[in-house]
TrEMBL record:
SUPFAM superfamilies membership: RuBisCo, C-terminal domain
Organism domain of life: Eukaryota
Catalytic activity entry: D-ribulose 1,5-bisphosphate + O2 = 2-phosphoglycolate + (2R)-3-phosphoglycerate + 2 H(+); 2 (2R)-3-phosphoglycerate + 2 H(+) = D-ribulose 1,5-bisphosphate + CO2 + H2O
InterPro entries per record: RuBisCO, RuBisCo_large_chain_AS, RuBisCO_lsu_C, RuBisCO_lsu_C_sf
Protein name: ribulose-bisphosphate carboxylase
Assigned keywords, A-Z: Calvin cycle, Carbon dioxide fixation, Chloroplast, Lyase, Monooxygenase, Oxidoreductase, Plastid
One of the record's GO cellular component terms: plastid
The enzyme's E.C. designation: 4.1.1.39
One of the Pfam families matching this protein, by short name: RuBisCO_large
GO terms assigned for molecular function: magnesium ion binding; monooxygenase activity; ribulose-bisphosphate carboxylase activity
């Protein structure tokens, strides 16, 4: 693997890949988290990631978050 594999997956070449960690890590509903992902991608980022300790919280289950982010 490596950067070339990532560039191939994203079909992005000739520039740095841009990404971010969604913040705040706590307090957003799954729907609002998905909206934040949408806004980041719409604004030009290539990828986003979860904060390491988000996991699956009672107010924001992993599956719900995944579905809203996939829709983004």
């Amino acid at each position: 693997h490596g950067i070339q594999v990532e560039r191939d997956k994203l079909n992005k070449y000739g520039r740095p890949l841009l990404g971010c960690t969604i913040k705040p890590k706590l307090g957003l509903s799954a729907k609002n988290y998905g909206r934040a992902v949408y806004e980041c991608l719409r604004g030009g980022l290539d990828f986003t990631k979860d904060d390491e300790n988000v996991n699956s919280q009672p107010f924001m289950r992993w599956r719900d978050r995944f579905l809203f982010c996939a829709e983004a």
